[in-house]
User: What shape does this take?
Amino acid sequence: MKRGLLSVSELSREEIEQLIEQAMIMKQEDTSGLLPGKALALLFEKPSLRTRVSFEIAMHQLGGYAIYLSPDEVGLGKREPVLDVARVLSRYVDGIAARTFSHETLRVLAENSSVPIINALSDLEHPCQALSDLLTIYEKKGRLSGLTVAFIGDGNNVANSLLLAASLTGMNFHIASPSGYEIKKELLKQGREFAALSGSQIRLTDEPREAVKGADIVYTDVWISMGQEAEVERRLAFQGYQVDAELLALARQDALFMHPLPAHRGEEVSEGVLGDSRSVVFDQAENRLHMQKALLAKALRQGG
Assistant: This one.
């Protein structure tokens, strides 16, 4: 994490485990003396509830502060070139958490910034979400290695990061997606390389029932993300991929249900499953705060 965090693949298994341990400690202890006076720029092209609030509160609880920069204020790549924004912000703040449409924007920011850049979401990955999810799973199950995560739906940024995180830490990863919406090939290749080292397994299918059978964690996400609203064929392609009580029943009896939120009830998940006793979606949401604290402390204390 010398330059922040753009991808889960930049971390080792040991670093992920250390972040989880640190986040669990930070969840219980006073952290106000860790980043006194440090400033974080929240550079957002897309709106957010959990990402913005968790980063702002995280910096406050670490003794620093955050400055939110909206799309209209910056006009990233439109009003001002990305490389200039990176160079200017580097003179003002100690780190940048960027939420962008394109992962390439993050790469340009990182190449031109002298302070750490943290990926707060891009079209390719959502590493903060995946790491928070592993924290939640570890809290509930007491381990990661050997567990099976079944992801139902789009091979999107959340699925990409979860695949990498799972395969790095020895978790099996099953994903059921309709044709044309699978995990990106370059991410799959990378995940399989990690899985070969950790001893985990990756399984791809277009059949949700096959993916979920015997799983320890059942995970889904929205079918239509921000920026995809015009892709009307998406909703048709994902018919039959809803996680409902019948599908969840195929997983282990003590399986967890996970969703990064916001959820579209009646589409990717039924109302009953979202409110099921096995649902940990709000624990996931809370843990974004604690994992963000661990990430920020690691990145900003070492000065990039």
Remarks:
- The first strand starts at residue 4 and ends at 5.
